[in-house]
Amino acid sequence: MKSIGRKCVNLCLAMLVAAGLAGSGALAAGEGTSVFKDVGNHWARNVIAWAAANGIANGFDDGTFRPNLKISEREFLALVLRAFPEYEVPEQQAGEPWHIRYYKAAGQLNWPVFDMEAKRAYTRGDAARIIAAAHGKLLSKDEAVRYLLDNGLAKGKTSPTPEGFGADDPLTRAEALAFIFNVKHAGGGAAAEEQDAAFALRGVAIGDEEKAVLASLGEPDRRDPSAAGYTWLVYNSDYAKFALIGVSGGRVVALFSSADVWSQPDGLKPGASLQAAAGHAGISSGDLGADVTYAYEKEGFRITLYLDLDERMVEGMLVEQAGTAGRGSGDARAASRADLERAYERQILDLTNVFRLKHGLGALAWHETAAKAARLHSADMAERGYFDHVNPEGEGPFERMAAAGIGDYRAYGENIAAGYRSAFEAHIGWVNSSGHRKNLLHDRFETLGVGVAYDPDSEYGWYYTQNFYTVR
User: Fold this and answer.
1) 49: part of which helix (H) or strand (E)?
2) 467 SS3 class
């Protein structure tokens, strides 16, 4: 999906030279699966993280989850009903065994349960009957298995057939959560069983509750508005785990990161090749590489890929709940102009630092004085209708730097851009321009100030300036 009205200008090398560069016991759910020491490479690690983050399943007091442990009917029933708070579960009565209230709820729902005392092995086929019942289908074991396969709620153990499903095999804790993940998402999105078909970012998926995100990842380092109307929970204390979690109405509606913190079965994540990304998008790699961004809808998601065409790979990804994407269209109406401008400035710092980290460079510190100079230049370009490092009076970055009070420096550089509708777009534009890219990845820079200005009556709308700075 192409952006319109975009424009970038490279900072000339001579300017850099002049700047001096030439010379069952409950275990609290933590982030992802790291809280469980026995699921690091397990096929269901991301489903387990999703369940832990949403308060559906806990680990054990010894720090394990035991994903391959066989599960009983009462345990599976409790997991299902925790995952669906819309089902009413009676309060536990004094002296009553923990599982009784779940069987009361199952009785009210007319679900096929038969082993309250947990006297026999609970099978995958038994679980299939519960899942079918949650979809309003009271079926035999064989019929339930076929229903799950026909409706994409399961893929089977060895093949997507009744024979490959393993209906008589005992159900494990990991398989139970995969089944639940499927039925949980079937009503409004994609799901997968033994593989994680939905996108997950640090164990967080679209549709999760905001309170579950906070329980898992902690309070965000920052909250930013978005032009689409939702709020970004920004986690940037560790750029290797950088994440933006978009929330609205108490639930997750968007995910963004350019770091290696995504989980998706087809391998679509930052660092994936254009060929792999094109396969997921259903287009040719040639068509995908025609622009630095590409957006498409798939399985209830709106997916926007930000591409590094220099290295022929995905640089960052934005995944939004279908119907959420595009609201506001980056026009600063969904949030105040000033709030969006400041949010984009900080996001550009974050994106720059993640990009530098991936290329073996240190993070840049925020420099407020440089940011003020950058804001003045962006606002001036918007107001007076020009787009250049040099203003109509012939004043360039060095004059602006001196006017802002920055006089003693070893290195200085500037990137500008205009017309991009978000920080994500501005950043990927710079990534794909050799002059800008050199500034982003220069090993002599230590600080960064970013200035963003929006003027709906200007030629390009959004204007961006990056001022890189290193003290002497």
Assistant:
1) helix 45-53
2) strand
Half-sphere exposure of 21 (CA within 13 A, CB side): 20
- C-beta of residue 430 within 8 angstroms of C-beta of residue 325: no
Smallest CA-to-CA distance from 74 within 136, 107, 108, 122 is with: 122
End-to-end CA distance of the chain: 44
| Contact present, 368 and 443 (Cβ < 8 Å) | no
Task: Average the pLDDT over each of 2-11, 288-297, 316-325 and give the range with the smallest value.
Answer: 2-11
3-state helix, strand, coil in the chain (%, to 5): 35, 20, 45
- In this structure, what token pair is assigned to residue 283? 């287009």
The owner of tokens 């399961």 is 154
> Got the DSSP string for 111-125?
-----TT--S--BHH
What letter represents residue 461's amino acid? G
Phi-psi region of 425 (alpha: psi -120 to 50; beta: other; left: phi over 0): alpha
Question: 3-class DSSP state for residue 451?
Answer: strand
Assess contact for 353 and 230: CB atoms under 8 A. Answer: no
The owner of tokens 């290193």 is 470
The 8-class DSSP code of residue 75 comes to H
Separation of alpha carbons 329 and 459, rounded Å: 16
C-alpha dihedral over 454, 457, 460, 465, to 10 degrees?
A: -30
Residues 375, 452 contacting (CB under 8 angstroms): yes
Residues 81 and 106: their CA atoms lie apart, in Å, by: 9
- What secondary structure letter does DSSP report for 90? P
How does pLDDT run across 395-431, given as a tens digit for each residue?
998 888 888 888 777 888 999 999 999 999 999 999 9
- Closest to 303 (Cα-Cα) out of 292, 291, 319, 314: 319
Cα distance between residue 318 and residue 301, in whole Å: 10
